[in-house]
């Protein structure tokens, strides 16, 4: 079989700021020897880490992963027996603060959750494209032998 991997994209500006802080930390440490440069290094590394999920269908395992410079970190767990995959639309909100001004940005996203028999779920995939979401959900349906619940509209429909 195969391994399915999803990485949540880190915005370009956030990556740029993170790499800038890392460079600043190295320059500060090697030119001044200031140990506080480690703080800038830690913040920069935190900003460029991507999160994601990975399912190994052949070995029936999954893991939540963090990606740092192309290296995956995360421990494998046994894959529960999933009953269905839910595709639903929700709003994602992000708050931005700058000195005295605050604003909220919201956008529509579509999430794919894999539900097990105890009604616990793993959010595995996030996208803004409905067709892409159903393409991934169909892949799960074939690979895991489960049903798809379309919860993107006003009524929930089993596919």
List the helices and strands and how they pair.
Blueprint: E1 3-7, H1 12-32, H2 37-48, E2 50-56, E3 61-68, E4 71-73, E5 77-78, E6 82-98, E7 101-116, E8 121-127, H3 130-144, E9 147-151, E10 157-158
Parallel strand pairs: 6-9
Antiparallel strand pairs: 1-2, 2-3, 3-4, 3-5, 6-7, 7-8, 9-10
Protein name: DUF3137 domain-containing protein
Organism: Flavobacterium qiangtangense
Describe the structure.
By secondary structure, the protein is an alpha+beta fold. It folds into two domains: 1-70, no CATH class; 80-159, no CATH class. It is built from three helices and ten strands; from the N terminus they run βααβββββββαββ. The strands form two sheets. Strands 1, 2, 3, 4 and 5 form a five-stranded antiparallel beta sheet that branches. A five-stranded mixed beta sheet has the order 8-7-6-9-10, with helices on one face. A hairpin with a 5-residue loop joins strand 9 and strand 10. Helix 1 (12-32) runs antiparallel to helix 2 (37-48). The protein starts with a strand and ends with a strand.
What is the end-to-end distance? 24 Å
Largest sheet: 5 strands, antiparallel
Which band does the percent of strand residues land in? Answer: over 45%
List the uncertain runs.
none
**Helical stretch tally:** 3
- How many whole angstroms does the radius of gyration measure? 20 Å
Provide the helix percentage.
25-40%
Protein name: DUF3137 domain-containing protein
Organism: Flavobacterium qiangtangense
Give a short summary of the structure:
Helices cover 30% and strands 45% of the residues. With 159 residues, the protein is α+β, with helices and mostly antiparallel strands. It comes from Flavobacterium qiangtangense.
